[in-house]
Amino acid sequence: MTAPRPAPKLPTSGGRPWLGVNYWSRTAGPFMWQRFDIDVIREELHILAQHGLTVIRAFLFWPHFMPEPDYLDDTCVARFATFLDLCWAAGIQTIPTFIVGHMSGENWDPRWRHDLDLYRDGWLLAQQAFYIREIVQRFKDHPAIVAWLISNEVPIYGGSTDARYGKSWAEITVQAVRAAGAHHPVSLGDGAWGIEVTGNDNGFRLRDLIRTIDFVGPHVYPMSDDEVRQNLTAAFTCELCHFGKPVLLEEFGCTTDFVSEENAAVYYRHVLHSTLLAGAVGWLAWNNTDFDLPEQDPYRHHPFEQHFGVTDVTGRPKAPLIELHRFRTTLDRLEFDRCTRTPTEVALLISSYFDTAYPFTNAAERPTLRQILLQTYCTLRLADLAPLCIRELDDWPQVRLLLCPSTKALTTPTWNRLEAFAAAGSTVYVSYFPGVTQTQRGPWWPMLNQLFGVRHLLRYGLTDPVEDDEVVWTFEQPLGDLPVGTVLRFRVSGNENGRAFLPVEPTEATVIARDQHGRPALLVRPLDKGQLILATFPIEYFAASRPRSNPDASTITLYRALARLAGATPPVTVPDADVWCDRLIRDDGTEFLWIVSHRATSAEIRPATAPGLVLEDLESGAEVDPPISLPPYGVATYRVRR
Questions:
Q1: Is residue 3 part of a domain?
Q2: Does residue 558 sit in the same domain as residue 527?
Q3: Are 537 and 214 in contact (CB under 8 A)?
Q4: pLDDT tens across 256-291, in order?
Q5: Has this prediction a pTM greater than 0.85?
Q6: DSSP 551
Q7: Which of 306, 338, 370 is the last residue of a domain?
Q8: Degrees to nearest 5, angle at CA 149 with 180 and 278
Q9: 477 and 589: one domain?
Q10: Which residues touch 455 (CB under 8 Å, ≥6 apart)?
């Protein structure tokens, strides 16, 4: 019972995936079309090409390119033509971006917009369509063009909108590209910040847009209180963006005002490799260069925006550019365009209450639900259980292990589906969670007693608070590879609503583990071919609510035991809690193994492999004998020979 993990491919140039940067010239940033320096641009492009980058995203600053209605500035257009020629001469292709009114902490309008609604005003929609169509008609046949983007983070520039208008704006602007005769891929440049990814409904819903756009382009700049969550947020975001179209990590990066250059390279390394293993098939860092423009907006009032570059103001490659070059080398050695993700036997269920605005539900629950899902994703990664993220309202492939972590609500039909899923041979794990608000606080589980073979002892309007700082489970039945007597410890966190447990008595279920007060903590109800597992504590919520909670060793141990019980243990695992592994497979059957360390010190890793598997060095083909040495925060890739 395995399921494919999505990673549809982008069109490529010369068989190489898109790897590059978002581009402004260091001479002027957004004002580069007014202060256009050919020699500097040529040098900047040459440095990028030297380091294996083949794609840049260019920005047509709207106030400069369209200073009047029904009119394009001839000078800007001519300079853009020169810019495309320079890109092509350097061996770099370009993704032009049209509606560029937001940039790096400031919004700029064409002076003729007059606060008209970007999405609803018919005249302004026609002006946007005119602008896009005219640019595309002039440049659609230039060999440097590889794709088009409609906007730069339009929810910041135009604001949120109703989902009807988000969809219609996307349709009108994308059709303007098509009406001009272009056949390149098109997407919105909106950041993929809609409800399916963030829980916030800004009017740009992927379910509505996916038939209009050709790829999804998330923009990811996390701020976290946990190092593992920080490094894996981009990967989890990519997982949430899989709706059948390729995922291009359209913006990611960090300013070296906030992080040392060496640690910026660490962040780049983890984002690049983890998103590749999460199904991203293209990468554009923010951005190509630092700036020395202290008197020019937006850098005057957002000074840290001057130092997101992968090169400095002299053109010197910074450490993140070296990481991009190394990543390119890895992609080329694998022949990445021929690779896909290995199937998985593990799935993470995303409640529809996260991505659907049901009537009379509290939207304040959604951010916490996303935190829980992210934390669970991190734990599954650290347990080497590469999950498929599945949406509650979609079709589910039959997998051996399905996890519903810290779940307050699923729709009524889903609970029937879970029972049928387990009866068909899966292990289904559900952990209790009453939610973080007082809006109908409690488990929205209409079949709780029958489904899990228990009798619950909840009291109306009240929680059963966890008053200990730590919950201690002691196993009185074996689970997977965990023997009787195993002790797992979970630190408690969260607010007064969520920090609660589910009091139950077993009826048909068997108690596997009890807490330090003798209360049932983990129970199993066997079904025809599988089983339902109930955790009475929201252990994932506890970890998600706590700073620096990873690696969450006890939950990692629990998930590995569930995988063993379900028969879902992967063929290669790493015993270390702060190191994880995953695989890709090439179309000729060759498999590649990644080992990713979140350890701040060097690590000696001894992977556990299924019988008959041998690891080989990617370059030499020599057999690799454990232990494998990794530097701090190191990433290594090997060929797997059977």
A1: no
A2: yes
A3: no
A4: 999 999 999 999 999 999 999 999 999 999 999 999
A5: yes
A6: S
A7: 338
A8: 135
A9: no
A10: 449, 504, 505, 507
